[in-house]
Amino acid sequence: MYVLVICKNIKQKPFSPVREAFWLKKRKERQMADEKNRKPGTGSSVRNMTLTAMFLAIGMILPFFTGQIPQIGSMLLPMHLPVFLCALICGWKYGVVMAFILPLFRSAIFTMPPMYPVAVAMAFELATYALVAGLLYERSRWQRVKALYKCII
Fold first, then answer.
1. Are 82 and 125 in contact (CB under 8 A)?
2. Is 59:103 a contact under the CB 8 Å cutoff?
3. b/e map of 94-131 (b: 16 or more CB within 10 Å)?
4. Between vectors from CA 34 to CA 136 and to CA 52, what angle results, nearest 5°?
């Protein structure tokens, strides 16, 4: 079924509702692709702060799970995982701040790791880790699996 559109001095070709639906679908797909290809850290600041707080909480709690097993707890430091994820998802700025605060908060609240020799050094180490991982991921052409491997190495 065709619909004719007639304006004063402009004659347009008739178009079908199927064609119009097709172009609306294409526009929606393009918008979704644009959102999917959005660079990390360019979202809402409220969203990024909420995710950063969630990663901070995960970083505070996660060492308790690996600390229960002495063989794994002495080898694995799980505070790096939320720092890495925060730097990739929220951007390097949020990742660096969260990475610097995480060992200091954990040391102040749970007294583990010890504040002076270990927690301060870990704060700088995790901040550097978040900075490098976040910048490498942000600067890569495609935010895909290859970029993640570059950030990990």
1. no
2. no
3. bbbbbbbbbbebbbeeeeebeeeeebbebbebbbebbb
4. 50
CA-only gyration radius of the chain, Å: 24
| Angstrom distance (rounded) from CA 147 to CA 139 | 9
- Token pair, residue 108, equals 């102040």
Type of residue at 111: T
pLDDT over 70 percentage in the chain = 78
Question: Tokens for 47?
Answer: 């969203």
pTM of the model: 0.68
Helix H, strand E, coil C: the string for 126-144 is HHHHHHHHHHHHHHCCCCC
Read off the tokens for 63. Answer: 């060492």
